Amino acid sequence: MIPEKHTATVKKIASELGFSFCGIGKAEFLEEEAPKLEEWLKRGYQGKMGYLENHFDKRLDPTKLVPGAKSVVSLLYNYYPEPDHNKDSSYKIAKYAYGKDYHFVIKDKLKEFMQSLQEEVGAVEGRVFVDSAPVHERAWAAKSGLGWVGKNSLLLNRNLGSFFFIAELIIDLELEPDPPTKDYCGTCTACMDACPTDAIPEPYVVDGSRCISYLTIELKDEIPAEFKDKMEGWAFGCDICQDVCPWNRFAKPHHEPAFTSQGWEDFSKQDWEEMTEEVFRRVFKKSPVKRTKYTGLKRNIDFIRKSD
């Protein structure tokens, strides 16, 4: 009865902290994912994201990240914004970056989660993650029944779509695992058909080196000329494959004050193009957009402008 009782406690805390869904997986080697990840890297789909080649074993085995780990708790935190500012903007920003950097917002919640769990259960050892270590997040979320990995390689949830952050607790507490769900993509290829850079060459496989999110955030060199006329106004990240996904009809507006936009939503085309470093620092002070730096955002805007 103890794992059952602890599982109920974990799910109760998740709900109290505002997580939309909570699923549990047994901490073990992700055997099915190993050959997929190996093949993806072999094809060079990671582009210049060299860090994805590191810690191969840790990505697949949570006990190498947290010795003695027994359970992986996966959590979904909704960020779907209303209104969608990209509809009226000349330069678009991915919805996840509308507000304050999610790393800080969710990491604080995860620390609170561990504290509450220790208060209710006793000594629990482990680590918390939100896109901050070599954790195969989508695989764990799918394994614990929070959704399935769609043809655009993102986790899809029947009740929420895909506009959410995934976070984990890898802990030494034995819990009851949740069963995985099935794949509900069916014959739909909306995401593949809509991608302007052909970054989804086959179902469930994304060529990261062609993805607009990669080109505008991760790539530090010049954007290759072959992508001229293909950016569709995306200056930071891209939501195209999510916007066209039928499951996102079920996306619901978030209730997180920290994720409301930070003052760029009324920018005119001229405001974007003439933005100074001072304005960039002020407007994107606590935003994920800061990651691309002023020079990166200017590079993206100039590339789009010259393509018009």
TrEMBL record:
GO biological-process terms attached to the record: tRNA queuosine(34) biosynthetic process
HAMAP family linked to this entry: QueG
Gene3D superfamilies linked: 3.30.70.20
Known cofactor(s): [4Fe-4S] cluster; cob(II)alamin
EC number of the protein: 1.17.99.6
Subunit note: Monomer.
Residues at the active site: D131
Amino-acid positions noted as binding [4Fe-4S] cluster 1 in the UniProt annotation, renumbered to this chain: C185, C188, C191, C245
MF annotations from Gene Ontology: 4 iron, 4 sulfur cluster binding; cobalamin binding; epoxyqueuosine reductase activity; metal ion binding
Stretch forming the signal peptide: none
Record: residues binding [4Fe-4S] cluster 2: C195, C211, C238, C241
Enzyme class: oxidoreductase
Record-linked PROSITE patterns: 4FE4S_FER_1, 4FE4S_FER_2
InterPro entries: 4Fe4S_Fe-S-bd (IPR017896), 4Fe4S_Fe_S_CS (IPR017900), QueG (IPR004453), QueG_DUF1730 (IPR013542)
Taxonomic placement: Bacteria, Pseudomonadati, Bacteroidota, Cytophagia, Cytophagales
Top-level division of the source organism's lineage: Bacteria
Record-linked PANTHER family: EPOXYQUEUOSINE REDUCTASE
Residues noted as binding tRNA in the record, renumbered to the chain: K220
Function: Catalyzes the conversion of epoxyqueuosine (oQ) to queuosine (Q), which is a hypermodified base found in the wobble positions of tRNA(Asp), tRNA(Asn), tRNA(His) and tRNA(Tyr).
Compartments it resides in: Cytoplasm
Reactions catalysed: epoxyqueuosine(34) in tRNA + AH2 = queuosine(34) in tRNA + A + H2O
Annotated positions binding cob(II)alamin: R59, D131, N152, L155, I166, S213, C238, D239
Similarity comment: family membership: Belongs to the QueG family.
Pathway it works in: tRNA modification; tRNA-queuosine biosynthesis
Gene that this sequence comes from: queG
The protein's name in its UniProt record: Epoxyqueuosine reductase
4Fe-4S ferredoxin-type domain sequence ranges: 173-205
